[in-house]
Amino acid sequence: MTRSTSQQIVSGVVVGALLSGCAIGPDYMRPTVAEPPTFRGQATAEAASFADAPWWEIFQDPSLRALIREALSQNYDVAIAAARVQEARAALRVARSDLFPSFDYGVGVGRSKVSPGGVQGSPGGPAAHASNFYSATMSASWELDIWGRIRRSNEAARANLFATEDARRGVWLTLVSDVAQAYFELLALDVRLEIARNSTGAYQRTYDLFLDRFNLGVASRLETSRALGALGDAQATIPQIESDIVAKENQISILLGKPPGPIARGKPMYEQPVVPTVPAGLPATLLERRPDLRQAEQLLVSANARIGVAKAEFFPKLSLTALFGTASPEVSALTGGTATIWAMAGLISGPIFNAGRTLGNYRATVAQWEQARLQYEQAVLIALREVSDTLTALGKLNEAEMGQSTAVTALGEAVGHATDRYRQGLANYFEVLEAQQQLYPAQNTLADIRRNRLLAYVQLYKALGGGWSLTDDEWNGQREARTP
Questions:
Q1: CA–CA gap between residue 431 and residue 294 (Å, rounded)
Q2: Residue 49 has what DSSP assignment?
Q3: Rounded (5°) CA angle 333-334-338
C-alpha cells in the first residue's frame, strides 16, 4: 500500500468524523402541558410537599413498615422490573457498539485435488496430486455515522433504559401504596368484625330479655320473633367478614412474595395517625417527581430519536472494511509470513427503490412519536386529577368523620335509653330494635369513613410521587432499617 493511498484513507476518515458532528432528525423538546399554579383542592401554593418524606416517615405503624420492607425485597413485580432494567441496559450496550469498529477473525482449512489435463489415470497422462491450504485472517469493519443514525439509535436506547428505571421506581411506589392500602383495609375489616360481634351480643341480650318477658306473659310472640330475626342477621355477617379477612391476608401475602398466611397487625385502625390536610407542593414539580410521568417522557424521547434513525435511512451509508492475514499450504508456514493477505475497501450504499418501505417506516415512527406525545400529555392530566381527587377527599372525609362520630355517640346513648325505658314499661320493643338497627350500621359507616381517610392518605402519597428523592438502597428499606 503506497503512502498516498494511506493519506487518502486517513483523510476520508477525518472528513467522515467531521461530517458526524450533527445528527439528522429533530432534537427533543418537552411538550407544553397544562401546569396550573395550584392543585384543585389545595388551599395555597407551597413549595414543600408531602412526597418529599420517605415512606417510613409517612407510615408510623412498625408492623406496616416491616411488611413494606419485606414486600420490597421479595415481591415478584419488583424482581421482574429489575430484570427489565438489566435487559434495557444490555440493549443500550448493543446499540452503543455500533459506534466503534468491529473486529472478527477467521481460520480456514482446505484440501483439493486438481488434474492439470488429460484423463485421470490414463496411460501417459499426467498424474493428479492433492494439496492442502491453510489461512488465518482478521477483519475489521466500521460504519461512519455521517448522518447520526447510530447516535440517534443510542439516544433511543438510552431513553428506553431511563424509562425502565423510572418504571421500576414506579413499581416500588405502587407496591408501597398497595401494601399500605391492603393493610388499612385489613384493619377496617377487623373493626367491622368487632362491630358484628358486638351487635350479635347486643341482639342476643335483647332477645333474651324479650324471651324472658314472653315467658312471663308480659311480651308478645311478635317481639321475640323480631328480636330473633335481628339476631340471625347479625350472626350471618360474622362468617362473611371472617372470609373477607382471610382473602385480604392472602392478598397481602402475595404482595410479600410468599404463600398465603396470617398477617401480623400493629396499631388498630382508630389509632393510626391521619391528618386532615397535608402539603401537596407545586403542580410544576409533579412532572419531575412522579415516576410514571418521567417514564412517559422518556418513552417520548425514545420515539423522537427513532425519527432521526428512520430519516437517516434515506441517505447513503459509508462503511470501511479491512482484512489482514496469511495463507500457506503448510500449517507451520502460517507464521512465517510467506503469503500475506491484506485488503482495504470503502463502501457507499443507499436506497434507490424499495416500493416505499423507507418512507413508510419513517411515517410510522412519526406516528409513534405522536402517540407517545399524546400519551404523555394525557398522563399529566390524569396525574393532576388524581392529586386533586385525593386532596379533596382527604379534607372532606375529615368533615364527614366528625359528623358521623357525633351520630354514633348519639345513637349509642339512644340504645341505652330505649332499653331502660323498655325494662320500665315506658317503651315498646320497636323502639329498642329501631335504636339498635340504627346504631350498628352507623358504626360501620364510621369505620368506612376512617378507612377511606387512611386510603386517601396513601393514595395522595402515591399521586404526588412519594419518595422521589430516595436512592435505590433507601427504597429497599436499608436506610430505614438502621433508623431507631
A1: 60
A2: B
A3: 65
- Dihedral of alpha carbons 358, 364, 366, 369, sign: negative
Q: Per-residue pLDDT averaged across 145-167, rounded?
A: 91
Is residue 140 within 8 Å of residue 321, measured between CB atoms?
A: yes
- Provide the H-helix boundaries in 424-466: 429-463
CB-CB neighbours of 155 under 10 Å: 23
pLDDT at 482: 43
Cell of 405: 362520630
3-state DSSP assignment of residue 230: helix
Is the pLDDT reported for residue 130 higher than 90? no
What are the C-alpha distances in Å from 66 to residues 179, 259, 262, 470, 476? 11, 17, 14, 18, 11
Q: pLDDT at position 263, please?
A: 93
Domain boundaries, the chain: 22-102+147-315+357-481
Handedness of CA 416, 420, 422, 427 (dihedral sign): negative
Question: In this structure, which long-range contacts are made by residues 203-207, counting pairs with CB atoms below 8 Å and at least 24 apart in sequence?
Answer: 203/227, 203/230, 203/231, 203/234, 203/436, 204/231, 206/230, 206/231, 206/419, 206/432, 206/433, 206/436, 207/231
- Helix (H) or strand (E) holding 144, with range, is strand 129-144
pLDDT tops 80 at residue 122 = no
Residues 6 or more apart whose Cβ sits within 8 Å of residue 347: 318, 319, 320, 321
Match domain 22-102+147-315+357-481 to its CATH number in 1.10.10.350, 1.20.1600.10, 1.10.1510.10, 3.30.450.20. 1.20.1600.10
* Mean pLDDT, residues 139-157: 89
The Cα 461–Cα 438 span in angstroms is 35
Q: Whose CA is closest to 172, among 471, 414, 455, 482? A: 471
Distance CA 209, CA 216 (A): 11
Closest CA to 419 of 244, 221, 210: 210
The 3-state DSSP class for residue 265 equals coil
Distance of CA 307 to the CA centre of its chain: 26
Q: Which three cell numbers stand for residue 429?
A: 320493643
Give the C-alpha separation, 369 to 392, whole Å.
35
User: Could you report the per-residue pLDDT of 304-349, keeping only the tens digit for each?
Assistant: 999 999 999 898 988 889 888 887 776 555 565 567 888 888 888 8
